[in-house]
Predict the 3D structure of the following.
Amino acid sequence: MDLRRGLELNENISFNIELATDLSPATLREMYVTMVRIRKFEERVAELVSKEEIICPCHLYIGEEAVATGVCSALRKDDYVFSTHRSHGHYIAKGGDIKALMAELYGRATGCSKGRGGSMHLASPDMGLPGSSAIVAGTIPLAVGAALAFSLQKRDSVSVAFFW
Ligand SMILES: Cc1ncc(C[n+]2csc(CCOP(=O)(O)OP(=O)(O)O)c2C)c(N)n1
């Protein structure tokens, strides 16, 4: 696929695609494992939804694993991410507990949101995922608010809004 197609007429747009060559083999392997972990989890969820074992609405993250993995691999535990209606991958990449995630999809009290949130309202505050919002673009003001709080606290944490 030609990624430049459609943009050729705009002379002001230039492309500077750099490979992340400074990442160590161990880091790359860890990132690959995270992507596979997300994919396997999602495939299992798809099966369970089709069998109506899981009845909460689920939006899968298949095909987007690299986005969450790449972003979260550059973050620390005390950095925040705010996630969307398609939040399983963000939760896993940020280091959330997978059993607590599955329990949440089953609506169990042991779920990461105590079984009250479901797929679209995952949270793992200890891992830097304060919450998820199914309101389109709703993560942007949340992340900006957290960034303002970090700034006022003179804390060097980063706040990320996933919004698609
Ligand atoms: C403010 C708002 N308007 C409408 C909706 C209904 N809605 C839920 S998902 C969605 C589409 C979101 O598209 P995109 O952000 O591209 O995510 P995708 O599901 O396609 O990955 C819409 C319009 C919503 N959740 N919030």
The helical segments are 25-50, 65-73, 88-93, 98-105, 139-152. The chain is about 40% helix and 5% strand. The chain has a mean pLDDT of 91.
